[in-house]
Amino acid sequence: MPATEPIRIGKDTKEELKRLKIHPRETYDDVIKRLIEEYKRSRHAKD
């Protein structure tokens, strides 16, 4: 497993990330990475 770094997020942000999980065992790191990739794709599509 790669090294991890603690980050601080608000409770509301954590709950939103929890709702965005594809499956219950998906990590918050995986959710964030997926959101970043989706953002990059959407930005690239606008160019």
Describe the protein.
- With 47 residues, the chain is an all-alpha fold.
- It has a domain at 22-47.
- The protein contains 2 helices and no strands.
- The chain has helices at 11-20, 28-46.
- The longest helix is centred in the last third of the chain and has 19 residues, at 28-46.
- The protein is globular, with a radius of gyration of 13 Å.
- The model has no long low-confidence stretch (mean pLDDT 93).
Topology:
Blueprint: H1 11-20, H2 28-46
Task: Supply the key terms.
47 residues, mainly alpha, 62% helix, globular
Run of helices and strands: HH
Beta-strand residue percentage:
under 5%
Unreliable segments of 5+ consecutive residues? none
Structural class: mainly alpha
In whole angstroms, the N-to-C terminal distance is 35 Å
Overall body shape: globular
Q: Note the total helix count.
A: 2
Number of strands: 0
Tell me the major beta sheet. none
Over all CA atoms, what is the radius of gyration? 13 Å
In helices, the fraction of residues equals 55-70%
Mean pLDDT: 93
